Structure formats: C-alpha cells, structure tokens
Amino acid sequence: MAQPAWQDPVLLPLDTAPVPEYGSGSLADLLPTLAAGQEVPGFTAAIPELTPADRNCVFLIDGLGWEQIKAHPDEAPFLHSLLPTSRGGTGRPLTAGFPSTTATSLASVGTGLPPGEHGLPGYTVRNPETGELMNQLRWKPWTAPKVWQPYPTVFQLADTAGVHTAQVSAPTFEQTPLTKVALSGGSFLGRLSGEDRMDVAAQRLAAGDRSLVYTYYSEVDGKGHRFGTDSDAWRGQLMYVDGLARRLAEQLPPRSALYITADHGMIDIPFDEQSRIDFDEDWELRAGVALLGGEGRARHVYAVPGAQADVLAVWREVLGEQFWVASRDEAIAAGWFGPTIDERVYGRIGDVVAAAHDDVIITASVNEPHESAMAGVHGSLTPVEQLVPLLEVRS
Q1: Rounded CA gap, 138 and 123, in Å?
Q2: What is the rounded CA–CA span in Å between residue 27 and residue 268?
Q3: Cα(379)–Cα(267) distance, rounded to whole angstroms?
Q4: What is the DSSP letter of 246?
Q5: What gap in Å lies between CA 221 and CA 61, rounded to an integer?
Q6: What does the H/E/C string look like for the chain?
Q7: To the nearest 10°, the Cα dihedral for 246, 250, 251, 256?
Q8: Nearest Cα residue to 106 out of 214, 245, 259
Q9: Residues 255-296: pLDDT tens digits?
Q10: Residue from 80, 134, 95, 30 nearest 382 by CA
Q11: Is the pLDDT of residue 246 over 50?
C-alpha cells in the first residue's frame, strides 16, 4: 500500500530479494552435474542430490515454472505426479537465475555458467562497445557471437570427451546465434512437431553408451505471453506438453535419466495503470535515462553520464515500494548475477537494476509495443518467476 504523499516511501530492502542458488541449485548447475556423472573432465557435481546416469536427457519447457505445475494438477497430471521426484527426490525446485528470462536461462543451461560470466544478463542490455541496446534473444543488432559469449558449452566439452551429444528442437533454431553460443555441440536435429522431437530425443539417447540429449518446447511460453496463464489457450498447451513429457518418458532406453525443467515461470499482470507503469509516459522515470533495457519485471536502466546517482534516487523514490531497486554494484554485491562478474559483462548491467516484487511491470508503450501488450510476463526474483522444476524419470 502506498504511503501518504507527505511520508517517505518504505523501500524494499535489497537483502529481502531472494538470490538464485548459484553453485548448488540453479539452472547453471544442471549440465555440469550431469557431465560430471558421465566423467567429462573439468566438471563437478554442483547439485549434490542428483545420481549419475550413463544417458541423460534434458527436456526444457519454455515458461513452465514450478508454481504453474503445482497449480494445475488436472491439466498436467503426469508432470504434477513427478513433483516429488524433483531435484533428486527432494521435491524441491531449482532457481532459474537472474533475470528469469529465456536468453539468460538458456545460456546458463548450455554453458553451465551464471549470467555474470556467460554475459547474457537480460532480455536487452547495453553493448558497452557501441552504446546500443542488444536484444540477446533475437540477437539484434548483429554482434559477433563468440566475442559476446566466448566460453565453450557443456555440450561441446561433452562431445569432445566422447559423450554422444545432441539437441532436438525446432529447425528454425539451428543457425541462430543464441543456439550457437549457448546450446551448440554434437548434432542438431530439427523437428517441427513436438511428438517427433520426443521420439528423436529418445532415439539419440539410445545411440550412445554415454549420451547427453537436450530437447525443447516453446509454446507454453508463447501462449502465456499472449493470453496469460489463466487462459484456455495456455491450459491447452499445458495439457499438450504434459502428453509430450509422458511420451518421452515411456521411450527411455536403459540406464537413462530424463530431467524435465524450464527456463522461468510466468505471472499475469492486469491491464491497468496501477499494474503497468509506462516509462515512455513518465517524465520522472525518464529523467536522466539514456537507455531502458531488460524487460518489464527486470529492468536495466542506463543513465546519461553523471546522472547515475540521481536516476537511482528517483527510481527508488518512485518504485522502491514495489521493486527492489539497486545500483549496478549493489546488484552485483547481492549476487543477483552470480558470484563473479566478468570484466566484459560489467558494463552490460544497468547503472540501475529494478526487479519487481509486486504484481507490476514497467512497460514502454512507444519503444516496446509488443512486449508492453503481453498478458503474461517474467524476469524477476519472485518464486512464481524464479522457481523451475527438475522432474526426474529413470529407466
């Protein structure tokens, strides 16, 4: 509840923001743990609850967070029945990492590194070399992929070590820069239908004595963005992907482990002025801001030179009851982006970082019309966005 105008706002303390479990229970820890169990050199089992398997398959369902599965037992009976298996039978979720968004999470999954190291710390971030905003999902404007993200993927290292490695996804993703920097290594097999992906993933899993296979489905996220998670369209996608997961689980070859996870959850935001704060129409928030990056619930704010302190003060005053508002150094010190920050990544993070606590987003109706019209969104540190499953089936 907002304070009366004559009272100072009661700011959200930064130490109340939930920090992702980097190093022990985040998405970045999954593939290194599986690779360590397959004796790939250089990896250790970061998630101690998992038991090694010769053949590992990761099925990542875009946008299907832990809270969504818990809330929909009727639409997702198979996935819901697996909740007790999550995270090695502890019945606990993983954390996505910050921000909880697709480009950041897929890079964390594929490289085994937190955002502060792999360098994709948001939906859009400033390129310090050019001063432009870089969309890391669509890779616009074009930026040399290996310069932007120079580390090898876990798939590449596993393939070099003799593990049979494959990715099974939509054909359109094969040549994208995000795939190249985050998920490449071994074979890419493009399949249009979800059923074909499940069947091919099972086949590739059986093709090696040691196998590491990744497959992906995007439309739960797509319907959530367009219609919200309270829509029939979203529920229909959940029912469909529940069947896909069962189909894959029933085809596992011997000595296999299937891990079903996600890159983030999702929250529906009402279409009203209190819930959707329009940066492009708010002179206070715009003052001193050169670029607005990130997305509605996880904003990177880049100040004009010399205005950093003023921008931080204003954003805290205006938004600090609903958002965790931190300076770049405060967000780094709090561990939002991981335990360490590569030098090349430091300037990509906003001078001010704002992570939503309440059911509210910062839109940009002029510069981000598509994103501003989304019903379901994500990005912040709250459990509904941050917690993702690690459901397990073994053969």
Answers
A1: 9
A2: 23
A3: 10
A4: H
A5: 8
A6: CCCCCCCCCCCCCHHHCCCCCCCCCEHHHHHHHHHHHCCCCCCCCCCCCCCCCCEEEEEEECCCCHHHHHHCCCCCHHHHHCHHHHHHHCCCCEECCCCCCHHHHHHHHHHCCCHHHHCCCCCEEECCCCCCEEECCCCECCCCHHHHCCCCCHHHHHHHCCCEEEEEECHHHCCCHHHHHHCCCCEEEECCCHHHHHHHHHHHHHCCCCEEEEEEECHHHHHHHHHCCCCHHHHHHHHHHHHHHHHHHCCCCCCEEEEEECCCCCEECCCCCCCEEEHHHCHHHHCCEEEEEEECCEEEEEECCCCHHHHHHHHHHHHCCCEEEEEHHHHHHCCCCCCCCCHHHHCCCCCEEEEECCCCEEECCCCCHHHHCCCEECCCCCHHHHEECCEEEEC
A7: 100
A8: 214
A9: 999 999 999 999 999 999 999 999 999 999 999 999 999 999
A10: 95
A11: yes
For 309, residues 6+ apart whose C-beta sits below 8 A from its C-beta are: none
Distance in angstroms (rounded) separating the CA atoms of residues 131 and 128 = 5
Using CA atoms, how far residue 256 sits from 251, 259, 353, in Å, is 10, 10, 41
Q: Locate 235 and state its tokens.
A: 């529920």
Categorize the per-residue pLDDT at 6 as very low, low, confident or very high, splitting at 50, 70 and 90: low
Q: What is the pLDDT of residue 1?
A: 47
Token pair belonging to 335: 């561990």
Tokens of 35: 């690779």
Closest to 377 measured CA to CA, from 21, 135, 123: 123
Q: How many CB atoms lie within 10 A of CB 250?
A: 12
Q: Are 117 and 340 in contact (CB under 8 A)?
A: yes
